[in-house]
Design brief:
The chain is an alpha+beta fold. About 40% of the residues lie in helices and about 25% in strands. Strands 3-4-5-6-2-1-7 form a seven-stranded mixed β-sheet.
Length: about 290
């Protein structure tokens, strides 16, 4: 099945030392052949070995756009299991966009958000849990979240679920075979074996559910509310934890009227801290 060749900027679009433009698809090597020129002008990248790096220039017609390093990765040993090319150029915003425009003019189309990972999944390179882990690694807010995401990316959850599935399918197959051929396959005593397997599987599933809840807390952070009487130092505590003057502090009771939220990292755990108004009886219609 032929698919479009896609391209996108793989690094943040800002002034930096290096930017990376990634190309993936059946025509990725053809695209780079059209726009790449080696120092001596005699190198054709599509004929080079996979997983090699090449110095040269990106050109648009006869105009040199930038001096680059180009990484060639041929299918199937790539992230998407398609031919993949990465252009490492200087990190200016204008030059990065210019190279991407040149790539698009020569046979690629702009990738949709997450399309490289989508292709990795569709081509069997990763499963859904690993695809989710990639997003979690990028968005990790603390070290624990990062470690959990890396463990998931390495297939930790997938292997557990695969083992559960294999056991269930094996038990189903045995029952069906016994029903089809009762003369040679007996189900005597299998009910006890099946019960033991189900109890083990249920325990594993319950553990996975519990770990997923813990993982959500680690990933999103713990909602932590500061509650107390007026002028008890709630806003001062928030400012001290955050390390800057985020909340207004005065001697006047009721200074804080709306909730104020800030995020901090405490020993690898993300806390979503919420400063609240002091609890008191008042005739102030706003505080009511």
């Amino acid at each position: 099945m032929k698919t479009d060749t896609i391209a996108a900027i793989a690094t943040g679009l800002s002034n930096a030392g290096i930017s990376i433009i990634r190309i993936s698809g059946e025509d990725a090597l053809s695209v780079i052949d059209r726009i790449y020129r080696s120092k001596n002008g005699d190198k054709v990248l599509s004929k080079e070995k996979s997983h090699t790096i090449h110095y040269g220039y990106i050109i648009d017609k006869d105009e040199v756009i930038d001096e680059v390093m180009v990484v060639i990765m041929k299918a199937p040993s790539t992230y998407t299991r398609e031919d993949v090319v990465e252009i490492d150029c200087h990190g200016g915003i204008i030059v990065t966009r210019k190279i991407l425009e040149t790539v698009l003019k020569n046979g690629a189309r702009i990738a949709e958000p997450g399309e490289f990972t989508k292709r990795a999944f569709l081509n069997g390179r990763i499963d859904l849990s690993q695809a989710e882990a990639i997003s979690d690694i990028i968005q990790a807010k603390n070290e624990l979240a990062l470690k959990n995401s890396i463990k998931q990316l390495r297939g930790g959850e997938y292997e557990i679920i695969k083992k559960l599935r294999d056991t269930i399918l094996r038990d189903i197959a045995f029952i069906e075979a016994a029903l089809d051929d009762p003369e040679h396959i007996s189900l005597d005593g299998f009910d006890q074996t099946l019960l033991e397997n189900l109890e083990k599987e249920s325990a594993v599933i319950e553990k996975l559910i519990k770990e997923s809840k813990n993982g959500k807390i680690i990933k999103e952070g713990i909602k932590t509310v500061i509650i107390g009487k007026p002028n008890a130092g709630k806003s001062s505590l928030l400012n001290r934890l955050v390390g800057e003057e985020r909340a207004i502090v005065t001697e006047i009771a009721g200074t804080t009227r709306d909730t104020l939220e800030e995020t901090i990292n405490l020993d690898g755990i993300t806390l979503n801290i919420i400063d609240t108004a002091g609890i008191r009886r008042t005739d102030d219609i706003i505080e009511k």
